[in-house]
Write a structure and sequence with these properties.
The complex is a heterodimer of chains A (93) and B (181). By secondary structure, chain A is mainly beta. Chain A contains no helices and eight strands. Chain A is globular. Chain A starts with 11 loop residues before the first strand and ends with a strand. Chain B has 181 residues and is mostly helical. Chain B has a single domain, classed as Up-down Bundle (Ferritin), CATH 1.20.1260. The radius of gyration of chain B is 16 Å and the shape is elongated. Classes of the chains: A mainly beta (93), B mainly alpha (181). At the A-B interface, loops of A face helix 3 and helix 6 of B.
Chain lengths: 93, 181
């Protein structure tokens, strides 16, 4: 069959930051997919992960977006560095 | 209008009318806007004390966030009032907030290091709790303009997050080995 061996094209997943929370708070993606955080709040936020994944969108003001491309399988927990009560998780497989 | 920090002043106003009968103070929309901006400015000014009074990283980071967030909310409030043609109007609640803030500032200014950390964070916990109460019981119910009310509603989660952040820092300060300036 012609499709044999083809992999699914990478997807873009959106995480909205609103009401001082990440929506969705837990996201499952595939290696190669992109995750885009959009800040809908009045106050600035970040989406920042340490450890092996180690990404940081930097400061996102209202309406601004930050992107991360998932490079390898892992489970990444991330926070907003300005607001320690905000947590999210990305499962990359 | 974020951290509408209606401090003890607003708490006092709210408590004074608690038993059923007394209605909330009747603030006009320009007065609500003034209270909001005042509350934000008070918390910004208090946070500006921090860099010269402590080296505690958690306290300094909290203060930086207060300045950033309250400044962002005030910018939004200013844009909204300009668009609506509303001029914020001074009022008794704003004046009480300013008076209370002046007292708090004089108590904190002579302190440094751990004593400052404790005093500042305790006040931030009380302040943000009072602000939340004020948003819920005074400002949102009083506001007539839908867009101004929407802004207050949008700001509320940030105030709640600031309160939890302040409580988190206060728990950290409880650790015996932590040092300040």
């Amino acid at each position: 069959m012609l499709l044999t061996g083809l992999t699914a094209p990478p997807k873009t997943h959106i995480v909205e930051i609103r009401g001082m929370e990440f929506h969705p708070a837990v996201l499952t993606v595939a290696v190669g997919d992109s995750i885009v955080w959009i800040n809908r709040d009045i106050v600035p936020h970040t989406a920042t992960a340490g450890g092996a994944t180690n990404w940081d969108t930097g400061q996102l003001v209202q309406g601004q977006m930050g992107r991360y491309v998932a490079r390898r399988a892992s489970v990444a927990r991330y926070v907003c560095t300005f607001h320690p009560t905000m947590h999210g998780k990305v499962i990359i497989h | 209008m974020l951290a509408i920090a209606v401090t003890l002043a607003i708490t006092a106003v709210l408590q004074a009318q608690s038993p059923v009968s007394a209605p909330a103070p009747d603030l006009s929309d320009p007065e609500v806007a003034h209270v909001a901006v005042t509350a934000n400015n008070i918390d910004i000014d208090m946070a500006k004390l921090v860099p010269t009074h402590t080296r505690n990283a958690a306290v300094r980071q909290f203060a930086t966030t207060m300045i950033t967030d309250h400044t962002a909310v005030n910018a939004q409030a200013a844009a909204l009032t300009t668009r609506l043609g509303v001029t914020p109007k001074d009022n008794a609640v704003s004046q009480s907030l300013q008076s209370d803030a002046a007292q708090a500032r004089s108590s904190l200014e002579p302190l440094h290091g751990r004593a400052f950390d404790r005093g500042y964070i305790d006040r931030e916990v009380a302040y943000h709790q009072a602000v939340l109460d004020a948003i819920d019981k005074l400002l949102i119910p009083t506001t007539e303009n839908a867009e101004l009310r929407k802004l207050l509603v949008a700001v509320r989660p940030a105030v709640a997050a600031h309160l939890e952040h302040a409580k988190h820092v206060r728990r950290q300060l409880g650790a015996p080995a932590r040092t300040g300036k």
